[in-house]
Amino acid sequence: MNLEQYFTGLLDSHQPDLALSERTWDRRADEVSCFTVSERDVALQTVLQHHELTGQSVLEISFGGGRHLLEFARRGARVSGVEISAKMLRHTQQKLQAAGLIGQADVLLYAPWEAVDLEEHGWKGAFDLVFLYMSPALSGTAMLRKALAASRNGFYVCSYVHREDSLLGALQDELGLPRRPVGRKTADSLYNLFNLLYQWGYFPQLSFEERNSTSSYEPDDILQRYASWLWRKGANSEQLQQLLQLLRKRAEAGKVSSRSRDLVGHLYLDKRLRR
Description:
The chain is of the alpha/beta class. It has 12 helices and 7 strands.
């Protein structure tokens, strides 16, 4: 087995549950739609190092609540996107409309990336940048090749490589669940992706940042987030009620606090630079 075969096997070893993904992100859509992008956002700054954006075309795969798509449109890019959650799509359309930028959006498609046909949409080699931020869409080498094929130049992927959350650990203990960090199964995905792209002749750039924060939330606002982390196949109504009671019990002045430490990887490559 050569290195390409080895890393191909690793990337192809995870089979996505698309129905579960859609339900999960529909449940979290209201929460995720509140996320914003600061000027210091490393993903945004990485893109701006390589792209003027004005007059360029950007495809975001798994655009979620639209925070990055909105920033690209504000900087003059023509934006298109794919999103598995219909509720996320509606939030993004509303944001673009409210910002007076809906005219910057070409196609916002409600679909899993696995179902998208590049030829049908005229997306083969159509974009100056293909952008994926915390996206589960690169579920195998076929999906990676399709994402690369949509770009004529830039390709960016951002992913967590390590996560710690004090509230999650405390809840796992109270519920009698094993301690399991978020994203453990996909923690090495970016490393595997980097190596596979290199084996294909590309020269990806990889950098990392550490994020430390203490945050406070109203229990109802984070119920679906922690439910998705605690019960990966989905929580039933009884489990949701139990979790909500625990969150409310831990609240002080109506807010629940958590300390987090995340290590985040950023991968960028220029398709034109290749062996």
